Amino acid sequence: MYFSVLVGGPRCSGRVEVLHGKSWATVCDADFDQQDAEVVCRELGCGPPVEVLGAAAFGRGEGQVWTEELQCKRNESQIHLCSKSPSIKHNCSHDNDVALVCSGSVRLMNGSNRCAGRVEVLHRGQWGTVCDDEWGMTDAAVVCRELGCGEAVDVLGNAHFGPGSGPVWMDDVDCSGLESTLKKCRSSGMGVSDCHHGRDAGVICSGKLYKSKHIIIFRCLIVTGIVFRSLYGDGPMNELLAILVFSLFFSDRTAVLHYRKCSMVSISCANILGVRLVGGSHCSGRVEVLHGKTWTTVCDADFDQQDAEVVCRELGCGAPVEVLGAAAFGRGEGQVWTEELQCRGNESQIHLCPKSPSIKHNCSHDNDVGL
Q1: Which terminus in the chain has less CB density within 10 A, N or C?
Q2: Is the whole-model pTM more than 0.70?
Q3: How many domains does the chain have?
Q4: Last residue of some domain: 102, 129, 164?
Q5: Count of CB atoms within 10 A of residue 181's CB?
């Protein structure tokens, strides 16, 4: 008997793993097509497949790699009902683990990409819309997380992305922001609504949470080299040292496990990036900047929207949603940054921003800024 799961992503997305006997096995990206994807999505109670991703996009699996080719016809209800090729393949490794994004019970329609558009919910086999009554950022945050689309950037009403069709399934939605799916949020009840399609709600999310492992490593390696040159100057030996440290960082098994957990977004590389967010999630928290060899917090009076845009960009976190003062993510430790950041908003890393020459001493950790 075979069963399938999706690992390493938000609901209805992740690395494809199949239970073969008593062991879970990953599947080679060369042996997995759209018909196989439709069966996996159906088996897991998700909507149709949105994207099939190769090259271990949701991280490398462990254990065996499936050695037979799945030959699903598309109409099977479960993966164990699909035919398998008798030929055995041995040329695939975990670098070729296939991943899948299914649409789940929510989707965004009529936007410029799958992470923006009119909010639609699947209920009783039919897609319907959500009313914009009480529709806000916490509700949008649940949708973006459920879709693996990063952070909520904007909420839109009055059928901004065009009127939908079918039922208005949800009205007066009230999410705490922590729910795993929009359908778990409080509302007036599924199908209970006095709304119409001229009030359909919309969402814009920051973008995909997942990235190719190779892109993540390449980006992190570049940042490592940049930080070492700001710390130790130019020269081929410093580049070599940066690469060596990066290699050592990933040779430690604890670091590798941490990398797998973070591989849906750009790798945190906590010891070598020039900025980090602490006390929240990967894309939210107290802003800390690497100054020399020391992490320092930033004063809320000296941090504006343009600075926020640079930090979010450097961390691969889309656009800033909110800048929070008064130690909203807790008080930091050590030094408080004494210079004012003067980013223009288009810099790729925080260390490229100009700094004010004036030194300020009137900030404490009670003023640590969050983002």
Answers
A1: N
A2: no
A3: 3
A4: 102
A5: 18
247 Rama sector, left if φ>0, alpha if ψ -120 to 50, beta otherwise: alpha
Q: Kindly tell me the burial class for residue 220, based on how many C-beta atoms sit within 10 Å of its own C-beta (0-12, 13-18, 19 or more).
A: buried
Based on the fold, state whether residues 283 and 339 are members of the same structural domain.
yes
Provide the token pair at 231: 């710390």
Structure tokens at 210: 């997942």
Same domain flag for 89 and 12: yes
Mind listing the pLDDT tens digit for each residue in 315-331? Answer: 777 778 889 988 888 89
> What beta strand segments (E) does the chain contain?
2-8, 13-20, 23-26, 49-53, 64-65, 70-71, 83-84, 99-102, 106-110, 116-123, 126-130, 152-156, 168-170, 202-205, 275-278, 286-291, 294-297, 339-341, 355-359
Name the domain boundary from 102, 118, 148: 102
Query: What pLDDT does residue 293 have?
Result: 67
Indicate if 73 and 130 belong to the same structural domain: no
Spatial CB neighbours of 270, under 8 Å, sequence gap ≥ 6 = 276
Is there a single domain that holds both residue 69 and residue 118? no
Please tell me whether residues 92 and 112 are part of one structural domain. no
Rounded-to-integer distance, Cα 358 and Cα 82, Å? 69
- Whether residues 348 and 288 share a domain: the answer is yes
90 domain residue, yes or no: yes
Greater model confidence, 237 or 130: 130
Note whether 58 and 82 are same-domain residues. yes
- pLDDT on residue 358: 64
Question: What pLDDT score does 259 carry?
Answer: 33
Q: What's the domain range around 93?
A: 2-102
When pLDDT is averaged across residues 166-182 and rounded to a whole number, the result is 88
Which band of pLDDT confidence, cut at 50, 70 and 90, is reported for residue 176? confident
352-370 pLDDT, tens digit each: 788 876 666 678 899 899 9
